[in-house]
Amino acid sequence: MTPPFASPLLVVWLRRLGMVGMFGIVGVLTMACGSPQESPAAAPAAEAPAVVESNDGSVRLAVDSAVVTDGRLRFEGSTNLIDGSLVAFVLEHDGFASGDFDGYLEGLVTVQNGSFSQELEVTRWPAGHARLRLAFSLAPGHGSEQPPGVTEAYGAQGERLLGPDVTDTAGSRKVEVRFDVPLP
After folding, report:
1. Which residues contact 99 (CB under 8 A, 6 or more apart)?
2. pTM score
3. What is the DSSP letter of 112?
4. Distance of CA 92 to CAs 36, 96, 115, 180, Å?
């Protein structure tokens, strides 16, 4: 549906660009007209939404914290992926690639209300750094599949995933982010 205030020339231009959907017209008109949008992130902490908002349709995936306490690493993150989405994680000690230390853990976390968290045992890991890598794809691995609602939302090959952290490998799209974790 075209907003009544959109000029016919703008609508034709948007149709040619394939942006006739509600989000395309509203987004372009908002940017073109300079109307400010309120950001949910600006709300007080008690009222902040659990979902990371995205004004451009991009999928957001972020590590908000990763802390080692008493030999346990706890990481927490936020996303605008829908509830039930499975996010794969890999934690790799900086000595793993060189063969100095066999520190490597992997698994899956489930998105709930725009967030996820996991606690991992790293008691035997020597001081240094580890790299935490998070990836969302429609084939999360570990013998698991994304729930049907997730597949419907993002496409069987992730074809509806958008954003700066989205990559395409062999026709499958995924979102991947990395985070360095100091190990005491």
Report:
1. none
2. 0.69
3. B
4. 42, 6, 22, 10
Q: Where are the domains of the chain?
A: 8-37, 61-183
The whole-angstrom separation of Cα 30 and Cα 150 is: 29
| 176/64 Cα distance (integer angstroms) | 15
Amino acid making up residue 153 = A
* CATH of span 61-183: 2.60.40.10
Sign of the Cα torsion 160, 43, 110, 178 reads: positive
Q: Residue 133 in 3-state DSSP?
A: strand
33 Rama sector, left if φ>0, alpha if ψ -120 to 50, beta otherwise: alpha
pLDDT tens digits for 91-103?
A: 999 988 877 788 9
| β-strand partners of 76 | 65, 117
Q: Count the neighbouring beta carbons within 10 Å of the beta carbon of residue 173.
A: 21
> What's the pLDDT tens digit per position in 29-41?
333 333 333 333 3
